[in-house]
Write the structure tokens for this entry.
Amino acid sequence: MINNKFFGRRRSEPARSVPPGQYLEDGFPVLSAGPTPRVDTATWDFSIEISGAMIGTWSWDSLNALPQTDIHTDIHCVTKWSKQDTDWRGVTIDTLLEDAGVDSPTGFVLADCDGGYTTNVPAADVIDGKGLLVHTYNGEPLTPEHGGPVRLFIPHLYLWKSAKWIRSLKFMDEDVPGFWERYGYHMYGDPWREQRYTND
Amino acid sequence: MVNTDPVRDWQIATVTSVHVETPRVKLFRLELPANTRFRAGQYFDVRLTAPDGYQAQRSYSVSSSPSDPSMIELAIELISDGEMSAYFHEFVELGDQIELRGPIGGHFTLSQNFIQPLLLIAGGTGLAPVISMLRQRQSVETTAPTVLMFSTRTEADILFREELMQLSEQDTNFHLVITLTRSASGEIPMETYFENRRIDRPMIDSAINLLGNVPARAYICGGSGFVETIGNHLLDIGMRHDDVRTERFGP
């Protein structure tokens, strides 16, 4: 349907295109379903389970002692904004799996967070450098409202998959819908295919 | 509780009324092509398409009550540099057609069966989904106390003013708290009215007093700093994380 008098306020052509239905945002909006949980790095830990078996637990210090990875990328939120050229630092899921001495799992993964948030993605989308635990944004410690001290980061999917306040990843055979996925958001969430909601 | 309905395809709604609510906010009523059940707090995606194919999408919370599934009301604030709000404010008229899909969203929703004490906190147009909850709550006639704390810039920016004032006079279980973040020349005839003040801890403590106890649930909608600050206060007074539902907008 055409809106005849609509022209839009198009910005100068971005360096790279944004996914369909997205607009460029200079700020960094905060979207969370509840208040920001209180997370203390002194007691924080992160664990990985594979098929119900705990294969590793990391404290804040042990996470920071692992090899760190820098990533420069664009991010896309399902609420329609995209932000280009963001810089993050953290530890790849590959590094954690290697540290635990296990092979890359297959199937699916469910992320669990402080505050009760969950989200699901295929295991393949967090390995081979595609998924990280990040603690630094644009050179500064990640602030609590943006998911600090540590959030999951899977920038090729809509940002709700990059779960804030991450505490564990559970690899399993089944694809179990997470918090927003149970409310009708897409199980995969590829911004380039505009997979916002179920059946998109 | 969980909504597993797939979001509907894009549909074409018709504008049945345009109302200038405040200098910055217009209310648009849109008749839906078919009755669409939604829950208080949910939103719709709106899509505009330029003649050359350029498209923009934004989400807007529904401000009308779920009791009328034939239409939705959207409160659209004119945002500087906002391409969609500018189009709505400058061009959208009675009878126009608008493409939208929804309802969407599941956590920031209030069930009709929720009849426990409730704290609603809204900043600016964050009042839209909250007044939908309030309107629904009125229609189910609960006697459980409800407090609405509404923060906005000036007296001229008070959305749904008459309706809220009337409600606070008629319903002894409903308490209205209005705070203006900037001073106003007028005087609003109510006790719980503040100027030059933002919602702070003492104000929240008095809202809890009006409710009689820490409420079973709270809903906060507004700008991200507003929601962040108030969410922290509610955790401080001992509310459980899951009982504090938030919707944030803006960078």
The domain at 11-104 of chain B is CATH 2.40.30.10 (Elongation Factor Tu (Ef-tu); domain 3). Helices of chain B lie at 83-91, 127-139, 161-170, 201-211, 224-236. Chain B has a mean pLDDT of 92. Chain B touches chain A through 49 residues (CB under 8 Å).
